[in-house]
Design goal:
- The complex is a heterotrimer of chains A (288), B (261) and C (349).
- Chain A has 14 helices and no strands.
- Chain A is mostly helical.
- In chain A, helix 3 crosses helix 13, helix 6 runs parallel beside helix 11 and helix 10 crosses helix 14.
- The radius of gyration of chain A is 23 Å and the shape is globular.
- Chain B is mostly helical and 261 residues long.
- In chain B, helix 3 packs antiparallel against helix 9 and helix 3 packs across helix 11.
- The longest helix of chain B has 34 residues.
- In chain C, 51% of the residues are buried.
- Chain C is of the alpha/beta class.
- Helix content of chain C is 40%, strand content 20%.
- In chain C, helix 6 packs across helix 7 and helix 6 packs across helix 15.
- In chain C, strands 1, 2, 3, 4, 7, 8, 9, 10, 11, 12, 13 and 14 form a twelve-stranded mixed β-sheet that branches. A two-stranded antiparallel sheet of chain C has the order 5-6.
- Classes of the chains: A mainly alpha (288), B mainly alpha (261), C alpha/beta (349).
Chain lengths: 288, 261, 349
């Protein structure tokens, strides 16, 4: 299959007409602007308003030399990994159910329903979560109305709240990408395995999971990558625990005018994220 | 894997996941009918926020701008993204890995940095600010999602199908319409839905690139939280979700895109 | 390479962007901060024929970036006087002909002649309003308002304290608590220690008025830093039971002023708009209907009811001795403050 897909090895010319529009657009709107930022990250000061500047590695030395930044980078990576893990645990079985256990017209409807909540505003959704998770909020009030004794439910401004908010925001990616891969597995393949005497667990482990790996990997990448740099959910739901590499980068742009350091932080983040993806490449390569 | 109990269990899990996804949406809608401007319980029914919304020209204009930009972004990004993913799937060439890796910087670099970079760059090349630059930015941010999602679907696509159609004398256009597109349809739809969501919820880039007086909904919302944020925002979000839900049920009645079966 | 989007963009631009009218006044300010009050915009338009178009910023750095990258796009910009010098150094603003601004004569001399707004005999900023960053308390938790800043450290309110997520404000607040001048912090270690002791008290950091008001309404906080104008709005507009407190140790004062950007297209409209913004008629209505900081125009403050907060409390001469106006902070110090603040947030117990 891979050989058939790669029939014209070495010649990009055949692919160009289809590739060019998308990549030209990306180049003009994202890559060129970001290269300007990459350039700034090697400067001592910004080249506007008659400031004196020189090329330097100082910003990267600061980023890698200060325990503050490396600690934050590590904890943000962990956050990304945890969110990705929970999205998989929750999302994959749901995708399987949708692909294999739901029939007929309701599939299309559910497919759309999974993504619809994300046509609302992210900020308003986070506020709504705060309303659910806080003392005197929806869960607290609900529990006290039902239970005969008083309980105090308040997990707003904790790490758990950040996790819930982020898993909620990114779950659809895992559900839909897994679905796309799962749905492509033809039923007769599974039937064949069953008729050969494979148990349910064997079918899942040896057949379904490997075949849906591209979907899982793509979903994981689309979750992990943005979560590592996220700042809105941590800031609004995490309270004192809400400082992430994303909020620190934001500060360099907002609180002080230190774009070079902010840019250096972003590109270090990008490099680390890409390195993590490269380590996971064998699975990812199949995903793309 | 089609025992009665596992099936019920699986469907129940799917139901729970949907419940989780809709919990904040339910709260959001509930609070749009609540009198308290600070999301306070107990609940006091009120239509004040809808009344306020009806008179809020700026918020309505921003919502239309957002819908318009998101729709255009969806069309352009889905089209260009589908083309690119087909090319990446069909052809192997040197540098392909690089092209694939290049999809991640726009996702990985925090949007504040991308937004600032775009502002500086568009200013530098003379494109300036306005809804046109907002659109350029949104399409670029949505493209990686579309390409990655459609590529997943293409992974499960057996090229022998296209070969078979070709050997039966089908034209490339016929192959695309009758063989390839129906198979990748779920991927294209999912990609388009994500593109819409990315654009519709995109704040930072719109914030830097929109001109005063011609903003988008997320920009209105974000600048509103500094001072008087009100559940008017919930009201407009509720309306948008309600209308989209209506469209969803109509669409799912008349179109099949969930898979080939 | 950029031709396609450029062409497409130009075509779209022609469709989407209406040509700018000559009589438009483009204003850059915080959202919901006086210049975009609908009634005010309407009254100004009726009186002068200039239409007002508002744009907003969310931080001073962003305001400077918008000025840099949009020459000619704005006619009036609202700048915290501590940042006016930054804008001036980069040549982003122009001298103002105050003879065209009738109400300028009524602006208190100490503010009008502030060295932050004047250079080489030219005026670069017209003082608009001033206010304080001090404390606000929830009345239910504090039947009598606290006199001292130490209430923030009181174990009785553990987990019910909030502080704005802003390095400069936090450090200056720490300076006040350790008996130092906010503009000349000699013992930064003492500030760090004092703030570190505050961290376990804190529920969460706030970043917008909406955050603060929501938490106060839900009873999640008892006390926190707040802006005088914001506290007034919380009370007047949202009926929240909160009281603004200026502790005996002092408070941070700031002065907001209007400037005219370098390439402003409608200088005449800008002058008229600034004049209207410091007019007593506008100010009294703004303070009564919404809640505002203190006008720089002495005649405007005098026009308030006698018991108005901005006249009775903020006009108290004893208060003037406790407060200190923010001066510009060198970049190196800002970065030091930011580093200290980030350390505290990450490593706090």
């Amino acid at each position: 299959m891979a050989a058939a897909a790669g029939g014209h090895r070495g010649r990009i010319s055949a692919a160009l007409p289809l590739l060019l529009p998308a990549y030209l657009w990306l180049a003009a709107a994202v890559f060129l602007p970001l290269s300007a930022m990459l350039f700034f990250s090697f400067l001592s000061d910004l080249p506007f308003g008659g400031r004196a500047w020189e090329v330097t590695l100082e910003n990267y030395r600061t980023v890698l030399g200060q325990s503050l930044y490396t600690t934050l980078l590590a904890s943000s990576l962990r956050l990304g990994a945890e969110v990705t893990f929970w999205c998989f645990v929750i999302g994959f079985p749901a995708a399987f159910a949708l692909a294999k256990l739901v029939r007929g017209r309701s599939r299309e409807a559910i497919f759309l329903l999974v993504i619809l909540p994300f046509w609302s505003n992210g900020l308003v959704r986070v506020f709504s979560w705060a309303m659910v998770l806080r003392e005197g909020g929806l869960i607290d009030t609900g529990l006290n109305a039902v239970l005969p004794f008083d309980v105090n439910f308040d997990i707003l401004y904790t790490r758990a709240a950040v996790l819930i908010g982020l898993v909620h925001s990114y779950l659809p990616y895992m559900v839909l990408t897994s679905y796309l891969a799962l749905e492509a597995i033809e039923d007769h393949v599974i039937e064949a395995a069953r008729s050969l005497g494979a148990s349910r667990l064997q079918i899942l482990w040896r057949l379904v999971l490997p075949l849906s790996l591209p979907g899982i990997a793509a979903g994981a990448a689309l979750i992990f990558v943005p979560v590592v740099g996220s700042f809105m959910e941590p800031r609004l739901l995490g309270g004192r625990e809400g400082t992430t590499i994303g909020t620190v980068i934001e500060d360099q742009f907002v609180a002080v005018f230190n774009w070079p350091l902010g840019a250096a932080l972003s590109f270090t983040l990008l490099a680390v994220v890409l390195a993590v993806l490269a380590l996971a490449a064998p699975a990812l390569r199949r995903a793309l | 894997m089609r025992g009665r109990w596992p099936t019920l269990l699986g469907q129940a899990w799917l139901g729970l996941v949907l419940l989780f996804l809709y919990l904040p949406i339910f709260v959001l809608a509930l609070m749009s009918f609540n009198a308290s401007p600070f999301y306070q319980l107990p609940f006091e029914p009120s239509l004040d926020w809808y009344r306020a919304l009806a008179g809020n020209r700026q918020l309505k204009a921003a919502s239309w701008n957002s819908l318009f930009i998101a729709a255009l972004t969806t069309v352009i990004a889905t089209l260009l993204g589908a083309m690119a993913s087909l090319a990446l799937h069909r052809h192997a060439f040197r540098g392909k890995r690089v092209l694939q890796a290049l999809l991640f910087p726009p996702v990985a670099v925090p949007w504040l940095i991308t937004g600032t970079a775009m502002l500086i760059f568009f200013f530098g090349v003379g494109l300036g600010r306005g809804l046109h630059t907002v659109l350029i930015g949104h399409v670029a941010l949505a493209l990686p999602y579309v390409i990655v999602v459609i590529s997943v679907r293409l992974q499960g696509f057996a090229p022998e199908l296209e070969e078979a159609a070709r050997s039966l004398g089908a034209s490339p256009w016929q192959i695309l319409r009758r063989v390839t597109l129906p198979f990748i349809a779920p991927g294209v739809v999912a990609g388009a839905l994500f593109a819409f969501a990315v654009s519709f919820d995109q704040f930072v880039v719109s914030y830097f690139l929109a001109t005063p007086g011609e903003t988008t909904l997320p920009v209105e919302i974000y600048s509103a939280i500094r001072k008087g944020f009100t559940p008017e925002i919930n009201a407009v979000s509720t309306l948008i979700i309600a209308v989209s839900m209506g469209l969803v049920f109509l669409t799912s009645r008349f179109f099949r895109f969930g898979g080939v079966r | 390479m950029k031709r396609i989007p450029a062409l497409f963009g130009a075509a779209l631009a022609a469709l989407l962007v209406a040509p700018a009218l000559a009589a438009e006044v483009h204003v850059l300010n915080w959202k919901g901060y006086g210049t975009d009050e609908p009634w005010a915009v309407e009254a100004f338009e009726k009186a002068t024929g200039h239409t007002v178009v508002n744009d907003y910023f969310n931080s001073e750095q962003e305001m400077l970036t918008k000025l840099r990258t949009n020459p000619g796009a704005y006619d009036v910009v609202m700048i915290n006087a501590a940042f006016t010098g930054d804008a001036l150094r980069e040549g982003l603003i122009q001298p103002i002909d105050t003879s065209k601004i009738a109400n300028y004569a009524d602006v208190g001399a100490d503010m009008a002649q502030s060295p932050l707004l004047n250079q080489d005999g030219q005026i670069f900023g017209v003082p608009w309003v001033w206010g304080l960053t001090a404390l606000a308390v929830r009345n239910e938790a504090f039947p009598t308002p606290p006199a001292s800043i130490e209430a923030m450290w009181d174990p009785a309110h553990k987990g019910k304290v909030t502080l704005r997520d802003d390095a400069i404000e936090a450090v200056q607040f720490g300076a006040i608590a350790t008996g130092q001048s906010i503009n000349d912090i000699k013992d930064l270690d003492a500030v760090r220690e004092k703030l570190a002791a505050l961290m376990p008290q804190i529920r969460t950091f706030w970043s917008s008025e909406n955050d603060w008001n929501q938490m106060a309404a839900a009873g999640q906080i008892d006390i926190g830093t707040y802006w005088s104008g914001a506290a007034a709005r919380a009370k007047n507009q949202f009926n929240l039971p909160v009281t603004f407190v200026v502790p005996q140790e002092g408070a941070i004062a700031w002065l907001d002023a209007f400037s005219i950007p370098k390439d402003a297209k409608n200088v005449e409209g800008a002058q008229a708009f600034i004049n209207y913004m410091i007019d007593p008629g506008f100010y009294v209505e703004w303070d009564t209907a919404a809640g505002a900081p203190v006008s720089a125009n002495a005649r405007a403050v005098a026009a308030l009811p006698e018991d108005a907060f901005n006249r009775a409390v903020m006009g108290d001469p004893a208060l003037a001795e406790r407060i200190e106006f923010q001066k510009p902070i060198p970049d190196a110090d800002k970065e030091k403050y930011l580093a200290l603040w980030q350390e505290l947030k990450v490593n706090a117990p």
